[in-house]
Design goal:
Blueprint lengths: L1 H23 L6 E2 L2 E7 L5 E11 L2 E12 L10 E8 L5 E5 L10 E10 L5 E13 L2 E7 L8 E3 L1
Antiparallel strand pairs: 1-10, 2-3, 2-9, 3-4, 4-7, 5-6, 5-8, 8-9, 8-10
Protein name: Lipoprotein
Organism: Streptomyces aurantiogriseus
Keywords: Signal
């Protein structure tokens, strides 16, 4: 009887560990690449290298822009930048990502906006080049553009 209990307990433990492993397993990325760099010109905020990070969950996607070369000209409180990121789409209409997500930033701090939310379709090929990022901070609109395509290439969505 004791052997049967140990066997049952071991089976339950193995099942629980397997379920836990599945819960923490990384999900497959539906967008490739997941990061890209671009050189952006943002006027008042400055200009230089920026990193874009993309995620996808079905037709929902997010993009985040981070840059140490583009800095906050004044202190900016968390979630106070109204951002609109328009990405050129080589397979159809441009895609727009919006949101007010940003960390608090001191004067001179690197700019971070996002994740900004948008909708994508299977096969979309999105590039910041020929798109733009508009940030409205304290009523002032700052527009960022790129002079060249992003590297290593556009974000392609499943």
């Amino acid at each position: 009887m004791r052997g049967k209990r140990i066997g049952t307990g071991a089976a339950l433990l193995a099942g629980a560990l397997a379920a836990t492993g599945l819960a923490f397993a990384p999900s497959a990325a539906a967008v490739a690449p997941t990061t890209a760099t671009v050189t952006a010109n943002c006027g008042l905020f400055g200009g230089g290298a920026a990193t874009l990070t993309a995620t996808q969950n079905g037709t929902s996607a997010t993009l985040t822009l981070k840059s140490t070369a583009i800095t906050a000209p004044i202190p900016i409180s968390a979630n106070s930048i109204n951002s609109t990121l328009t990405m050129a789409n080589s397979t159809g209409a441009a895609r727009v990502f919006t949101g007010t997500v940003n960390p608090a930033m001191a004067t001179g701090a690197p700019i971070v906006v996002g994740p900004l939310s948008g909708t994508v379709a299977s096969g979309d090929s999105l590039d910041f080049y020929q798109g733009s990022l508009k940030m409205v901070v304290f009523g002032i609109t700052v527009t960022c553009t790129a002079a060249a395509p992003q590297s290593p290439g556009p974000f392609v969505f499943d």
